[in-house]
Please model this.
Amino acid sequence: MTLTVLLGGTMLAAAGMPDSAPAQDIAAAGEERGEAGERENTETRLGQIVVSGEAPQRGIAVNVPAGESVIGQDTIRTFGNDKLDSVLRSTPGTFTRENAQQPGVAVNIRGFEGSGRVTSTVDGVRQNFRFTGHEASGFTYVDPAFLRAVEVRRGAVSAAGGGGLAGSVGYRTIGVDDVLSEGQDRGMIARMQWGSNGAGPSEMIAGAFRSGGAGFVIGLSGRSSDDYRNGNGQRETSTGQELRSGLFKGEFEFGNGHRLSFGGLIYRNEFGANSYNQRVDNRTFTAGYRYDPADNGAVDLSANLYYNDLSMEYLSPIDPGSPFASAVGRRIRDRGIGFDVSNVSTGMLGAVDVRSENGIEYFRDKVTAENSGVNPAAGRAATRAIFTENTFTYGRLDVIAALRYDHYSLDGAADAGGAFGAYRVDQSKGRLNPRLTVAWQATDWLQPYITWSQSMRAPTIQETMTGGDHPGGTSAAFLPNPELRPERQKGWELGANIQRDNLFMAGDSLSAKIGFFSMDVTDYVAARVNPDFGRMQYVNLPGTSRQQGIEIGAGYDTGSFYMDLAYTHTDSKLPPQQPGLGALNDLPDDIATLPAGTRLMDRRLHLGGRIHYVSNDVAASGDMPPVLERTSGYTLVDAFASFEFRKNAEIGLRITNLFDRAYTPALSTFGSGQGRTAYLTANFRF
Model:
């Protein structure tokens, strides 16, 4: 029985509560970033999923003195149910490397992307899969239908989930409490979507039950899409996908603060990209323990164990006559295992409130490959960290002092081919990375803050071990670099949180986060031609590369009307990446997104729209290194509506690229943008 038939039958009996949480609840949950339970996928309770009635706002973490955003499920389902690029590109300081053929997501934070510069996790499990090509240096594969939130941290991350240069992105999937309504011991949610212009059908169904201290949830999801047409009516080849995924989780409460949990995600997608029809399988498994005894501020212990297994296989060439169609059977596999242990304690030091989080984390990757081309065929990488993050609160003053020791090791072999032969990679390095934040609650509605931080990004297996000749008989060839050094960052962030209620009328609310950042990076890694051998390799560039910018996230809500703003200005001084070993990563100067809407008929009817503006993009010459040229920008308009026609049941309509604009997404490597596309949705809880 197909998912479509199954969902069609269950919808006839739909009943229950609406299926979406207010953005304010999502943001508040995201502010609990220091809690040990955040690392475990069933610990962070972000409220119930709602289908209607609330604005699809992004969470503005106005109580966190840092560049953080939490994208809630309502936003994901409204704008990112097909690809997450749309919601991430509409978050301050955040963008993506986009490929119309790729269902994976590659996040850019403050102009930094690829090769672990932004740490990516799914339910706390690192996603370290990489490959070398004319593309982002790796993607994260997760089904948007199962997501309840995406947590974005910009800047140095000192606690669990750190280790990147410019921030982290955490994808959180649904759990038992996201399916069951309050007071229920069993229930289900079901969603269907059909889209025009190649978008096709997608379905998701999840059921959960709870008995005593035990709870379980299981879900299935599928999506089938075809090639779409751009704003000029031209077909973009190989832009469809066949996605099937599943989810299961369990949790057990034993009393006295003891809790066990486990979970698994199964993801399989077939699509065409990088000149080949390919299949990606991603399996993620977690197990967690938490001990949080009542009335004991000294102990809130969390321990998590996880495993991730991702493989990419080339099935057949998209164009059988292409000279580059020689890699059929290529299979790259990354198996990772890791754990983290942390404890949060609270107490008083005289008149000062103290919150202290201390822990360790470890993750190891093993990469193997068949018919790998220039990609490494065998390598191992491990990252280790010890961290402490301490918040001292005295009256209106907060001082957050954090210290993280990062250590990495690389081990493997690389074959440069021909007379160059084999290279051996065996290196390890470590570094202390401090972070200091001072925040002042100047008034009840204004909290300015300033942060100084350092971070480090370890070189990857691909950067140190890539070697050999370009396929197709071209003259390009590559060398490994076993001596590659880690990238290092020092930077400042000056920001302010604003929260005003009853500003213009009773019951209205204004929330805003405004920030300026400046980051200096040394030993920045990019591909260049080795002048001694005439071959490309990754190298540490001399000097200091600076990145500066302004980030604004704001939202105004009266209950019946809301309007949000996400704005980013970037002054980029990063050296360009060489296309072929990565992709250009220079952000547009200005990016702005403005969603607005109204709620009518006792909030059962929701009407709205969104404007997305990108000032310009970059193009590159064929020089080495490339010379960048600015191109024209674009503006897109979307519209959406939803109606809760009965309790627990909602239908919706969304139209993207309303005016059928012909454009090429900024920071994209293949394909022009999708033309006007309509989506019909149905959401039920019973």
About this structure: The chain has a mean pLDDT of 87. Helices lie at 3-11, 23-31, 73-79, 85-88, 176-179, 461-465. Residues 387 and 404 are 4 Å apart (CA to CA). The radius of gyration is 24 Å.
